[in-house]
Design brief:
about 325 residues; four-stranded mixed beta sheet; globular; alpha/beta; 10 helices; binds oxa(dethia)-CoA; five-stranded mixed beta sheet
Length: about 325
């Protein structure tokens, strides 16, 4: 038994900030941002758009696409590092709003690896016969925690949410991989001072960049090896959308063609745990996936953390 994605939803804030606007805020240029990251625009939450409201919008769309009732969900996991409140958690807020009365609800904070960590956690619940239908939501309003005076990080991030419904399915059973390196945690931090001061994200960009370029190909190779799966059978590698240069470098190290690495970081920036489901939905809308396609998903980021999984469409 393994899960299958049966519905995807997304929610993006209306306001779009381009690189020109950023260059009026910090010492940067459109050209630098495009060349070093591939990013042109990002969506920024405003006028009452929150991590919770975006999560609910994406969740409702995913349920509609999956054609299931919220009451049939038995698990909701939200991945977010920008929850409005710690109690009740965002998953419980979604539960209340959509009427998923019997679902077990919790949030996880694994930043950019969070969607894949949540996905792999749902698979573990399914294998343990603890869940048949689950909702996973990645939702972030990073604009609330970005240091808008730090050109080394503020150019990178955007807001948004993505959700998938995962249903139990008789299919192949792949072993996923996850790892955490707490010793390297200083590379990407977000303090929580409980309202005493404004909390900011701080990032050693080149440290995270080097980690990603070295570790993502390695975890993919290991994932394929433990599942005795050949690269040739993978249709797409759907990686966390952090920086186009990271994606290019991973493709090169794996000696795989770039067209197996879809990307939309250009339009949204790095939306952390929302980036993979937002990309999945765009790909699905373009009919890029055919039934039976194998897709590798990889998340990487704060922790430092890494998560990888093979899914069958
Ligand atoms: O989702 C997981 C979390 N985060 C990531 O995956 C981020 C990974 N890291 C990155 O994407 C890249 O490291 C950045 C895009 C953040 C930075 O790119 P970089 O090529 O690593 O630049 P750098 O930090 O090594 O800086 C190179 C130069 C420096 O100037 P000097 O010292 O060479 O004179 C920086 O001061 O570029 C300068 N710089 C900028 N210049 C114009 C840094 N940020 C900017 C900027 N505009 N926005």
């Amino acid at each position: 038994m393994i899960g299958k994605i049966t519905g995807i939803g997304t929610a993006l804030p209306k306001y779009v900030m381009d690189n020109e606007e950023l260059s009026t805020m910090v010492e940067t240029t459109d050209q630098w941002i495009r060349e070093r990251t591939g990013i042109r625009t990002r969506h920024i939450a405003r006028n009452g758009e929150t991590t919770t409201s975006l999560a609910i919008e994406a969740a409702k769309e995913a349920l509609k696409a999956a054609k299931i009732e919220a009451a049939s969900l038995d698990l909701i996991i939200v991945s977010t590092n920008t929850a409005i409140d710690l109690m009740p958690n965002t998953a419980c807020e979604i539960q209340k709003e959509i009427g998923a009365f019997v679902a077990t609800c919790f949030d996880i904070t694994v930043a950019c690896s969070g969607f894949v960590f949540a996905y792999n956690t749902v698979l573990a619940y399914m294998r343990a016969n603890m869940c048949k239908k689950a909702l996973i939501v990645g939702s972030e309003t990073l604009s609330n925690v970005v240091d808008w005076s730090d050109r080394g990080s503020c150019i990178l991030f955007g807001d948004g949410a993505g959700a998938v419904v995962l249903e139990e399915d008789d299919s192949e059973n792949f072993k996923p991989l996850m790892s955490s390196m707490g010793a390297k945690g200083e590379a990407l931090t977000l303090t929580n001072s409980f309202g005493k001061a404004r909390d900011f994200m701080a990032m050693d960009g080149s440290e995270v960049f080097k980690f990603a370029v070295a570790s993502v190909p390695k975890i993919i190779e290991e994932l394929l090896m433990i599942n005795q799966f050949e690269k040739e059978k993978i249709k797409y590698y759907v990686l966390h959308q952090a920086n186009k240069r990271i994606i290019d470098a991973v493709a090169k190290r794996l000696k795989e063609p770039l067209d197996k690495f879809p990307t939309n970081v250009e339009n949204y920036g790095n939306t952390s745990s929302a980036s993979i489901p937002i990309l999945l939905k765009e790909m699905d809308e373009k009919n890029s996936f055919k039934k039976g396609d194998y897709i590798v998903m990889v998340g990487f980021g704060a922790g430092l953390s890494l998560g990888a999984t093979i899914l069958k469409w």
